[in-house]
Design brief:
eight-stranded antiparallel beta sheet, two-stranded antiparallel sheet, 12 strands, 22% helix, 27% strand, globular
Length: 214
């Protein structure tokens, strides 16, 4: 009898855990903020829009350009930064897939070329401070294992401002990250920041004219 009760209690516990997991996943997909609708314009940088996504796990259709380049899933953070780079710089990543945290390649040394993204990569900390337009890459965490990516929109004394898509249904499209010195290097004071990516200067100069439309 005791063994039977033990089995029942274990089964109940498993059911609660599994049920809770699926409820949690469902909540992350739905839109819990009635002030906005999915696809609503929230912000913009140089004419490229940030759209509201609802729950952080919500995905709409895949955004693909007329020439077949994969921008990403609407309206995830990756979709915004790649759309911005495509429209602003005509930039296409050789590897156009992967989660946000995968944009940072730990095998690439500070200041060298990340060939998968065709962007210069800087580690956190780095001898080089982020510039406006750089992609700031954040590692995943328990609530979001995929990581996050945003664009540096302003650089102040001791802080960076970023613009981001899909930071969460109640979070702002703009956020600040403090930075300081760490042994002759610049350190972004957030342990999730893996580093940042930068468009090559020659490409940047050649591309800032009549950005293509998707």
């Amino acid at each position: 009898m005791k063994q039977k009760k033990k089995i029942i209690w274990i089964s109940v516990l498993i059911a609660i855990v599994v049920g809770g997991y699926f409820i949690y996943r469902g909540v992350k997909k739905i839109n819990p903020n009635p002030d906005y609708y999915v696809g609503q314009v929230l912000d913009s940088l140089n004419g490229v829009y940030v759209y509201y996504n609802g729950g952080i796990d919500n995905v709409e259709e895949r955004n693909v350009t007329k020439d077949g380049y994969n921008i990403g899933l609407k309206y995830q953070c990756v979709e915004f930064v790649k759309r911005y780079y495509y429209e602003r710089y005509k930039h296409k990543m050789p590897d156009s897939y992967g989660n946000a945290k995968d944009f940072f390649d730990p095998k690439v040394k500070d200041g060298e070329l990340n060939k998968k993204r065709d962007l210069l990569q800087f580690s956190n900390p780095s001898f080089t401070l982020p510039n406006v337009g750089d992609l700031l890459i954040l590692d995943g965490h328990s609530g979001n294992p995929y990581g996050h990516v945003a664009i540096v929109s302003n650089v102040y004394e001791g802080a960076l401002e970023v613009i981001q898509q899909n930071p969460g249904p109640f979070a702002s499209s703009r956020a600040l990250f403090g930075y300081g010195d760490e042994g002759n290097k610049y350190k972004i004071q957030n342990e999730r920041v893996l580093g940042w990516l930068r468009i090559k200067e020659d490409i940047k100069k050649d591309s800032l004219v009549d950005s293509p439309k998707i």
